[in-house]
Amino acid sequence: MKLTEILTLSLLAQVQVVAGAAGLEREVKWAHVIDIPDVLPWVLPGQFLLTTAFGWPRDEEAQRALIRALAERDLACVGLAVPHFFEHFPVAVCEEAESLAFPLLEIPWNVPFAHITEAVNRAILADQSRVIEQSEAIHRTMTYAAVEAESLQDLAETLGALIQRAVTFEDVEGSVLGSYVLAHEEDEARRTTRLQERTPPKLQKYLEQKGYLRAIRETNTPVHIPALPEFGLTERLVCPIRLKGELVGSVWIIEGAHLLSELDVRAAEHAAIIAALHIAHQREMAAFEARLGSTFLDSLLEGHFEATPQALERAQLLGFDPETSYRVGLLILDVSLPLSREGFLQREALAGRLRQRLKFLNISPLLSVSLNRISFLLPEACACERIWKSLADEGLSLVFGRPYIGIEGIRRSYNEILSMLGCFPGDGCYVYETFLLPRVLLGDQEAHAAFLEQMLGGLRQQRNGETLIETLLVWAQLGFRPLAAAHHLHVHAKTLQYRLTRAARLSNLDLADPEVRFQLQLASHLLALQKKSS
């Protein structure tokens, strides 16, 4: 909390700020009483230091040196109980503190320090609890948006309503893909952009000349754009939307004089990630429509294969065993479509190398070639890395679904690959198991089950595993507040801590990791949806 907020507490109504008023916006982390001669080793940044100053020096230069040393340690302020050992802060102390913008407070002697520390620290904890609750609300709201939003317009409305700012989602050319309007927040530049459905060319050119657009293209972090009165533009925050390293759009938020909070920025970054997943999903739909071919493997992948005795016999002659567990693999060349002659030759050469590699490993080369992709089957007994090892190259990605047995399993594995497109970062070898979370956020029910099994399945096999799972989920649902979770579960706080420690060890989860906490909240949400639907 800021010191200005602390000073509004009723208990501090009689407190006088006698120096350093320019520093009243300092953050207060804790209130602490220290009344020993050598105070410096015991103070920490952000402390509201309470003292009677009975051990303070009486020499003017020593007093100035003490104030400088306390200010250098980044205390929030010093509160002196008066009158007793000092009638007031000495003049030299006040002069030094004023020059350093270091707040000095005089507290009436009849106000007990114990009451002050209790009130201040309770207020700080309440503020921290509020921040945690807001953070949890942001995660919950944006997770709902990831699952339920049908367009970037839906996502823009969700984000704008959450942070109460005017928002636009724009592509790399400046065209508007979605917007949220707040009349009192909308400036001339935003209104023109929204009505024309794209950023005005003159403004776009100016932003390019000044390097702002280049900064957006080259960074993964939010970019601040200052006010540009000549274009009717107030201050902006821009979050890039990236897909496999490619800039595919950006989230523009009007910031103005009232700066966005850290939680607001976090929500905007979360929205940019969800927007990338949404765009990836749209690209996947296009990939579905583009699939061609009527070979044996194509018919398996597309679900057209009829498992008649004659068809199965032909499949076995080709080397396919319906009782073997297979992964579907997909090689993707980073070349433009339609393929040029050079691209076509590159694809055919790669298919030849893959065929040779499979034969070398005594695996029947069941391949299918289409556009810039090569599909194939890999028995589960063969490690994925053995294929990638001989094919790894720039501009090439290899993706695997999970292993399954039977005709339906092939189709399922292939669908898992399609769901991963746009989720992995680029060149390299990837497997479905690594990318469960993006699948979950895209709303795939099968991925939901796999995600829950990955997060909690190991605990279910342990003694009292269901109790540990319940403890984790309640702790997540209640914003990771131990006391609230212990009260809800009707257990002692130490029992709760024991369970959390044991669950973390057995599941190999770092419960302090924000990503793990988000996944626990997501798991809790998914289980609640399952329970509701059943």
Descriptive overview:
With 534 residues, the protein is an alpha+beta fold. It has four domains: 3-123, Udp-n-acetylmuramoylalanyl-d-glutamate--2,6- Diaminopimelate Ligase, Chain: A, domain 1 (3-Layer(aba) Sandwich); 149-286, GAF domain (Beta-Lactamase, 2-Layer Sandwich), CATH 3.30.450; 291-434, 2-Layer Sandwich (Alpha-Beta Plaits), CATH 3.30.70.2730; 446-533, Arc Repressor Mutant, subunit A (Orthogonal Bundle). Helices cover 49% and strands 16% of the residues. It contains 20 helices and 16 strands. The strands form three sheets. Strands 11, 12, 13, 14, 15 and 16 form a six-stranded mixed sheet that branches. The protein is elongated and about 105 Å long. The two termini are 44 Å apart. The model is unreliable at 285-294 (pLDDT under 50).
Describe the structure concisely for a colleague:
This protein has 20 helices and 16 strands. The protein has four domains: 3-123, HprK N-terminal domain-like (Udp-n-acetylmuramoylalanyl-d-glutamate--2,6- Diaminopimelate Ligase, Chain: A, domain 1, 3-Layer(aba) Sandwich), CATH 3.40.1390.20; 149-286, GAF domain (Beta-Lactamase, 2-Layer Sandwich), CATH 3.30.450.40; 291-434, Alpha-Beta Plaits (2-Layer Sandwich); 446-533, PucR C-terminal helix-turn-helix domain (Arc Repressor Mutant, subunit A). It is an alpha+beta fold and 534 residues long.
